[in-house]
Amino acid sequence: MARLIFNMPVLYASLSVLKEFGRERERERERERAEESMDMQVGCRWGVLLPVVAMVTVEFTDVGVTTVSKAAMSRGMSSYVFVVYSNALAAIFLLPCFILQKKPAASLPLSVLCGLFLLGLIGSSSLILAYNGINYSSPTVSSAMGNLIPIFTFVLAVIFRIEKLDLRKSSTRAKLLSTIVSVSGAFIVILYKGSAILTFKGLSPPNFSNQHFVSQQTNWVFGGFLLALSCLLAAIWNIVQAPIVNNFPSKVTIVFFYIFFVTIQTTIYSLIVERNPNSWVLRPDIEMIAIVCSAMFGSVFRTAVHVWCLQQNGPIFVTMFRPLGVAIAAAMVVIFLGESLHLGSVIGSIIIAIGFYAMIWGQIKEQKIAMENEVHILASATQQAPLLPCRVAEDQ
């Protein structure tokens, strides 16, 4: 008894130490849980922000490529030669990925190969029209007219009865209204150049200064018309590519052969049109920079980001950033090329953007209705399923 009383302080101290140790362990666990929660929040934020940053970067690089190509063509570079060299270099960049991929190229069906040849024919025609349109007009007009692609895609889908035109649905009415609004904005961009509302000459390099652009008599209407035709071909490309791409899972093979066919077709056409041998000789200046940038960012980088964002967030997320390119293009051509920003481009671009987002709203509305219908069908099937055993039991 005396020994127990004597050891009481020791036991109390031991229990206190164990209790404190348990509290310390609990605090460590709370800190670990807090860190895990913090990591999950950071991961979720990055998961949301990274596709946005990627798409904004793509818009900047697209407009940058267009601006640099405009500068190169304004200095005398042929638009046909530019399209050939940039696509050939892009095919060279993609060649290692094509060789090292897991799925062999021998498994590519002949029907898919013929479809890719057709896609290349449509895409090469669209590219030639687009860069000739940029040469005659402006990168700002090109970015504004690019918003017509989903509008033209909707019109063609209705014409070929891929999509039904049901005016009782609000989504269909929104799409129809967006078509009218966007086409009206396109006519304003093409037919009404307007007065210059913003001019900046500070960062224009002396090698392709303002005087060169001012002296060039750009046919604004003709350039806008070429860009509209390019967007129409791009819409046809969107409709044709869907069944071809779905029949073959390897995206690297599809992109490589598409660019390969575009290179061959544009080379044949450009050799017929561009007879001057000196036009095929590249100068190590803005021409070389434009070709390298177009191959790296206009083809390889943009395709990779679009495929990744399509897998992460779907097609609507990818298309909703297109109007941002208009503002970027307007800033770049004024700052770096020294061109003036015209009133017609601003008004028309705003109207096209309104129509574009009305089209996006209609698509979101249709997808929401389709998802609700699927949920309703699944719920009805789930409610009816338990009745089947009862009926079987009654029959027995």
From TrEMBL:
Q: Could you list the residue ranges that cross the membrane?
A: 42-60, 80-100, 112-132, 144-162, 174-200, 220-240, 252-272, 288-309, 316-337, 343-361
Q: Which Pfam families match?
A: EamA
Q: What is its main location?
A: membrane
Q: How does it sit in the membrane?
A: Multi-pass membrane protein
One GO cellular-component annotation of the UniProt record comes to: membrane
The family database entries (InterPro entries) matched by this protein are listed as: EamA_dom (IPR000620), EmrE-like (IPR037185), WAT1-related (IPR030184)
Q: Which UniProt keywords apply?
A: Membrane, Transmembrane, Transmembrane helix
Membrane: present as a keyword of the record? Answer: yes
Q: Where is the EamA domain?
A: 59-190
Question: Where is the protein situated, by its record's location annotation?
Answer: Membrane
Q: Name one GO molecular function term.
A: transmembrane transporter activity
Say which family it is in: Belongs to the drug/metabolite transporter (DMT) superfamily. Plant drug/metabolite exporter (P-DME) (TC 2.A.7.4) family.
Name-wise, this protein is WAT1-related protein
